[in-house]
Amino acid sequence: MSNHKDTKGKAKLRFIPYESLVAISNVREFGIKKYKDDQGWKTVSRDDFAEAALRHIHKYFNGQLFDDESGLPHLHHALCSLALAVSVQEQQPVEVNVVQKKKKIRETFPAISCDDSDSDWICHGDVCTFVSTSFDEEE
Fold it and tell me: Where are the domains of the chain?
């Protein structure tokens, strides 16, 4: 019997630079004070967070290193926004593009698990994407 904890297949969080964790934490702390809510981020869309990250990166590349409101570096805001975008993506319904009658129709499906033998679905864990190569010939 081994005394070692089984960590096979688990994320190695020690590979994340400590400074990055502190940067995310500082931005989150600022946001919590500003919005007086530590869970409100869960209602923001992934795309809104990604766009916020791009705005901060744009300001960084245009020579503005620090955010005027928080005083924190724009790269810290961008990093935090991307971290939140990833979290939202993992927790919200999956958005997929479905081809139907040769037109793309955007639909939202809840994250589901599916049988790998179903050839119209490609699954990665609990997230499945509908894929169809057949078309209804009627227009």
Answer: 16-91, 94-130
